[in-house]
Amino acid sequence: MKWPFSFSAIFSRKPAGPLSLTQCPDCGREMIFVEKFTMTGDDLRTYRCQRCRKEHIVNFGTAMWKVLSDANKSEDDAS
Ligand SMILES: [Zn+2]
Fold it and tell me: Ligand 1 centroid vs 17 CA: distance in angstroms?
C-alpha cells in the first residue's frame, strides 16, 4: 500500500515554528477561526485577524476525506 507522503504529518501536527498556522502572517496575533472548506481536497480554513481586520485562508494540507478516499482507491483489493 502507498500512503500519501503527508499522511503521518497530519496526525503528528504540532506548532513547528514560532509562528503557528493560526497566527496572523501580518502581525503574528492569534486569529479567530471563521470557517472550513474542503471541497477542493485541501483542508482550507478561514481565519480572521481582529487587529488587521483581514481574513486569511490557511491551508492545513490535504483534507482528511481526500486522504481516506485516496487510500481506499489504492487498497481496492484488500478489504
Ligand atoms: Zn494581523
Answer: 18
Residue 61's Cβ-count burial label (10 Å; 0-12, 13-18, 19+) is middle
pLDDT exceeds 70 at position 4 = no
Question: Which numeric CATH code is attached to 22-73?
Answer: 2.20.25
According to DSSP, the residues that pair with 57 across neighbouring strands are: 46
pLDDT (tens digit, 9 = 90+) per residue, 12-32?
555 455 568 999 999 999 999
When pLDDT is averaged across residues 35-52 and rounded to a whole number, the result is 96
CA of 29 to the centre of ligand 1 (A): 6
Domain boundaries in the chain?
22-73
